[in-house]
Write a structure and sequence with these properties.
16% strand, 517 residues, Rossmann fold, 21 strands, Methionyl-trna Synthetase, domain 2, elongated, 5-stranded parallel β-sheet, 15 helices
């Protein structure tokens, strides 16, 4: 029986700040779910961080004419600050410090010592001009699985592993004019095929822990032999490995996720005043942890195939993640966010211009849970005003007529309505069936209902009670409004059945789009 829920959103690459596509995907969903769980009195740890070991840090630094290490450090600080700006309450935030680096090496070393890694020759694109192997972000072409434009390593479109040497029409991402040849290099690999049957059994046992797109992709991946997964790369950027047979190589950044997740979990526990005995303590079998990921669909291979295979290679030492809440791409005006192309809305900038409750509500309403959705500043203004700001402010004006008066009676009918509201929101906030979109729709529907409430002083207690109850249920999304109105009680669950009267509290107004925090 799990005693704690460990929630993780995979670290974004430290090659720039966060745009709205990042927030609308895994981060807002993870934050809302964690806030709801804590309101139910459950133990929750929420962690994320940044990844500076990715080759995409090098390619971004190359475009900008800066040192990769400087870009990674600056981006890590920006990402952490931006998460706070939009109200993502992270318990633990990782970076690429010495403690993390040592733990990754220890994790890989134990796999190596147990004989789970094998030396194997693999084919990579190679630049003879620079003498550099082109892996992951260094190589671009078309995915051999789905044929979409892709980089080496992982395909954003289909989620499959993309062997760098199998990219179609491969080119150097650093210099497309640089001729590319194919060259073999010895690397350490994990023979993932050994664990395919156990992976398939695990996902069949936890079929309710995936959304349909991921479930289909994972089933397809596991329906045929799995390729060997490179754990080391013959490049210099990344975490150096101490193995003589691949001297000078680094850990494949896509082989870091399980070690990173364990480290992230420990930092989250420490952030909440706990002191795990080791970096992997919360992941040990029988430790009472349920591991849950909120992540983009394009991250499923390292976190759901290669990563869990690494855990299985430790022969029962670790728990495996049971839930993966994926999201699709969030676009800007129906085109993919592009940092390099300047096609982006930076989350920090928007939070300085628009109250963050309105941002969170709009992103929840347009959440890319099952298909691509799109951000529009005009749509944000229209939707926030019509569905949230206008109805709420009219409701607050009416409720404030009775602020401080009472106690006012609350009827059984109204207590029943509150219980139904709780059931409705719980269906959207709980892991099984989690949906930001449905939670936002519930806020919209309940505000519209209360905005139409017949004017009658006789049922003022019922009206004010239900308004306050809605605010409690909406608190994981409307964090500032709930905190201002309810104070410390905003995140505390209570039973409506015991409420027979209330003294209404004064309710704040919501500012419109264009009014910053």
């Amino acid at each position: 029986m799990s005693t704690r829920r460990v929630i993780i959103s995979p670290a974004p690459t430290a090659n720039g700040d966060l745009h709205l596509g990042h927030i609308a995907g895994p981060f807002l969903a993870a934050d809302v779910h964690a806030r709801y769980e804590r309101a139910q009195g459950r133990e929750v740890l929420l962690g994320t961080g940044s990844q500076g070991t990715s080759t995409f840090v090098v390619t971004a630094a190359h475009r900008r004419g800066v040192r990769p290490a400087d870009l990674a450090a600056d981006s890590a600080a920006q990402i952490e600050s931006t998460l706070r700006a939009v109200g993502i309450a992270v318990d633990g935030y990782t970076g690429d410090d010495d403690r993390f680096t040592k733990w990754v090496v220890d994790f890989i070393r134990r796999l190596h010592a147990a004989g789970r890694l094998e030396r194997q020759s693999m084919t990579f694109p190679y630049s003879e001009r620079t003498g550099q192997f082109l892996v992951d972000g260094f190589a671009r072409g078309n995915c051999p699985e789905c044929l979409a434009e892709s980089r080496a390593g992982l395909c954003e479109s289909c989620g499959h592993l993309v062997a760098a040497g199998e990219l179609i029409d491969v080119k150097s991402a650093l210099d497309p004019s640089d001729p590319v040849v194919l060259r073999d290099a010895d690397v350490l690999v994990l023979p993932v095929e050994r664990y395919r049957d156990r992976l398939r059994a695990h996902f069949e046992a936890h079929a309710d822990g995936m959304r349909p797109h991921m479930a289909h992709a994972v089933a397809r991946m596991l329906s045929r032999p799995l390729p060997d997964f490179p754990v080391t790369y013959p490049i210099s950027w990344g975490i150096q490995v101490p193995f003589a047979e691949v001297a000078g190589q680094v850990v494949n950044p896509n082989a870091e996720p399980m070690a990173w997740s364990m480290h992230c979990s420990t930092l989250a526990a420490q952030g909440r005043g706990q002191n795990p005995a080791a970096e992997d303590a919360l992941w040990l079998a029988g430790s009472g942890s349920q591991i849950v990921y909120f992540l983009g669909f394009d991250n499923i291979y390292p976190f759901a195939i290669a990563g869990p295979a690494m855990l299985l290679a430790f022969d029962g030492r670790y728990e495996l993640p049971t839930h993966y809440l994926t999201n699709e791409f969030y676009e800007l005006d129906h085109e993919k966010f592009s940092t390099s192309g300047g096609h982006a809305v930076w989350a920090r900038d928007l939070a300085a211009q628009v109250p963050r409750d309105l941002i969170r509500f709009y992103l929840a309403t347009t959440s890319p849970e099952h298909q691509r959705t799109s951000f529009s500043r005009d749509a944000l203004a229209r939707l926030a005003e019509s569905r949230l700001v206008g109805p709420w402010n009219r409701i607050a004006d009416r409720a404030n007529r009775w602020a401080g008066r009472g106690p006012l009676p609350v009827s059984q009918r109204s207590r029943h309505a509150a219980a139904r509201m709780s059931e409705q929101f719980a269906a959207s906030y709980e892991l099984t069936g989690f949906s930001l979109t449905r939670a936002a729709e519930s806020i919209t529907d309940q505000l519209a209902r209360l905005d139409r409430w017949p004017a009658a002083d006789a049922d003022a207690g019922d009206f004010c009670f239900q308004v306050g109850w809605l605010l409690r249920e909406a608190a994981p999304i409307l964090i500032d409004l709930a905190a201002e109105a309810l104070g410390e009680n905003a995140g505390v669950a209570i039973d409506p059945a015991g409420v027979t009267s209330i003294v209404p509290l004064p309710l704040p107004h919501l500012a419109a789009v264009g009014a910053g925090r």
